[in-house]
Amino acid sequence: MAEAAGHRDVDVPKTKKAFVPLENNPEVMTHLVHQLGLSSNLAFHDVYSLTEPSLLSFLPRPALALLLVFPVTSTYEKFRQEEDSSQEEYSGSGEGERVVWFKQTIRNACGLIGLLHAVCNGAPRQQIQEGSDLQKLLKDAIPLKPVDRAELLYQSQALESAHADAAKKGDSTASDAQAKVDLHFVAFVKSEDGDLWELDGRRKGPLNRGKLGPEDDVLSEKGQELGVQAFLRREEEAGGGELRFSVVMLGPSLE
């Protein structure tokens, strides 16, 4: 399954460079973040059900981040625009920033932005290896305001090279960088202070979805209630019907 373009062209001009869409595949995602510098102690895993206990029990916990992958619908676009209309443009930066948020300015890169949101926040951030490309990128990004931070990603040769290598892997034939596909990635992460955040490079900034308890991870009942299930429920209640989606989780490696 490839990542989204389509509706995002209004936010990322066609004059901007484009990446080959990243396959929605936990092995590909894991390869990419390990290549960038995340510890091999963590990996991405398919979540085959959000509600079936027997399937949830197979997943290594804690779930440190979720990536929700879904088709961009008119219902979603309407909700996004309505919610964003009441939000100020995010301007956070520096060590006091509660979460690190990246604005997307590279076409076909929502999968990459989702991965960066997953590994650069909360507990996974402590698993980034010293001296790695990811550690250097995060160190350079933290002092920057969102526009300059986005430009840092845009100009990063290490990021572009690692993404290109990962895009060649997976079960399906890699799409062309100019391909238009209809899927989008949104990350849900638990910050160090226990809040659940929805992170999407298409939005005006990070979205705080509420407080989690010390024992709650992003896949817990409370984590889902505030995060992924609330997202899916909004789509259904707005008349979008049942949303076709998939979920990938960042958690302990099984190897």
Gyration radius, in Å = 17 Å
Order of helices and strands: HEHEHHHHHEEEHHE
Indicate the proportion of strand residues.
Answer: 5-15%
Mean of the pLDDT scores? 89
* Dominant shape: globular
What is the helical fraction, as a range of percent?
25-40%
N→C terminal distance: 24 Å
Q: How many DSSP-defined strands?
A: 6
Strand order of the largest sheet: 1-6-2-3-4-5
Query: Which parts are unreliable, with pLDDT below 50 for 5 consecutive residues or more?
Result: 1-10
Write the layout of secondary structure elements.
Elements (H helix, E strand, L loop, with lengths): L25 H11 L5 E6 L5 H4 L8 E7 L2 H12 L24 H10 L13 H9 L4 H10 L1 H11 L15 E8 L4 E5 L7 E5 L9 H6 L1 H13 L5 E7 L3
Antiparallel strand pairs: 1-6, 2-3, 2-6, 3-4, 4-5
Helix pairs in contact: 1-7, 3-9
Written description of the protein model:
The protein has helices at residues 26-36, 53-56, 74-85, 110-119, 133-141, 146-155, 157-167, 221-226, 228-240; strands at 42-47, 65-71, 183-190, 195-199, 207-211, 246-252. The chain has 255 residues and is of the alpha+beta class. Helix 1 packs antiparallel against helix 7 (157-167) and helix 3 packs across helix 9 (228-240). Residues 1-10 have low confidence and may be disordered.
Entry keywords:
alpha+beta, globular, disordered N terminus, ubl conjugation pathway, thiol protease, Peptidase_C12_UCH_sf, Peptidase_C12_UCH, EC 3.4.19.12
Briefly, what is this?
By secondary structure, this protein is α+β, with helices and mostly antiparallel strands. Helix content is 34%, strand content 15%.
